[in-house]
Amino acid sequence: MLIDTRGLSCPQPVLMVYPHLSGTDPVDVLVDNTTSQENVSRAAAKNGWKVEAKEEGDGIVRLELRR
Amino acid sequence: MTPPPDRDGRILHGFSNNEDAVLVKAPPAGLALVQTVDILGPIGNDARLFGQTAAANALSDVYAMGGRPWSVMNIAAFPSPTAESDTPLSILADILSGAMEKVAEAGAVLAGGHTLDDDLIKFGLSVTGVIDPALAARNDGLCPGDVLILTKPLGTGILATALKAKWPGSGEGESEMYRWTTRLNAHASEVIRATRLKAATDITGFGLGGHVLEMAEGSGVSVELETASLPFMPQVEEFASCGLIPAGTYRNRDYCSCRTTVAEGADELRATLAFDAQTSGGLLLAVPAGRVQEACERLAALGEPAFRVGRVLPLREKKERLVLA
Predict the structure, then answer these.
(1) Residue A41: closest CA among chain B residues belongs to which residue?
(2) A9 and chain B in contact, CB less than 8 A
(3) Ranges of chain B whose pLDDT falls below 50
(4) What's the pLDDT tens digit per position in B247-281?
């Protein structure tokens, strides 16, 4: 599952990711600002997910959320 | 809209006959004017309570110096009624009504106002207050040893974000937010005068951390905030841990980061929330150690909270201008 939150501002990215945090399938999230990156990471960590951030260039970060 | 009462005839010639300016009586001799203006975009979903909030927020700048509001002018931006506009004019009427309730509570009079046509609603006041210039509390008056007392809990930025997200429980959060944002800082201002405090500020857009840092720099000192002692409104930490933190809060934190040290063991979330952008926040009072009990007793007698959040330190290196312990 890939969720693209580029161009969206808080709280939209968290609202898009949250429903998937009750499952177990891996989720990748593309973010393009630090607010989205930190907020999505917090939401995932709170629900027991591990988060790895990978720079994709041009200010875009791929957050790999794994249960 | 009912204008606030003018009990002592402060308005000498009003705007009722289409006058473009208003004649206002000067304050008693010896007092100085304290002037400010503040305008907000809507917060929450209730027009009247937004009006109250915007008014309390603008009046707060006068209170933070220890002043008393004397007269105000409304400033509103509102979409003019057209076929495309679905914003009824009654919203503007509700905003103004709410604002005038707070102006009346503050004992100030209305000296007019201005409305402009804009797609986005904004509202605020220009406020003129009066103050004995010798007793004005300032941003740059911190002294090492002063204890920092905050008079409202933190978290309006988080609660407004949860509301925007329609997050479960955010409705109760909205009531709690309005309970504080509509509250005048009049009592805390009274304590500034009665206790003859030299330094105070009101906590708004830069958050507690940002405003304290400004004070520390102006005063040539460092400041320590105790993250464990920071008071938050109910649900704020829960919402924040779900990722409902507004961009402005992160911006405040990052802007201050090169002058801020977060102590080992300090809670990361609380250290971030120290920078939560506040709307109509409380006053931060700097109280000399020997007068803390007196100030707290005065606040309690007026029904005002007193949260002890930190202390002023002698100047440290640049990175430790603000220490989050």
Answers:
(1) B243
(2) yes
(3) none
(4) 999 999 999 999 999 999 999 999 999 999 999 99
CB B185 within 8 A of CB B282: yes
ipTM of the shown complex: 0.95
Instruction: Look up residue B292 and give its two tokens.
Output: 């803390």
CATH 3.30.1330.10 fits B11-134, yes or no: yes
Phi-psi region of B322 (alpha: psi -120 to 50; beta: other; left: phi over 0): beta
Whole-number Å distance between alpha carbons of B305 and B145:
21
User: What CA–CA distance (Å, rounded) separates B86 from B51?
Assistant: 20
Name the CA dihedral angle for B244, B246, B249, B253, rounded to a multiple of 10 degrees.
Answer: 80
Are A42 and B240 in contact (CB < 8 Å)? yes
Question: Domain locations in chain B?
Answer: 11-134, 137-324
User: DSSP character for A7?
Assistant: T
Is B164 in Cβ contact with A39 (below 8 Å)? no
Tokens of B278: 């506040």
Q: Which fold has domain B137-324?
A: Phosphoribosyl-aminoimidazole Synthetase; Chain A, domain 2 (3.90.650)
| pTM for this model (two decimals) | 0.94
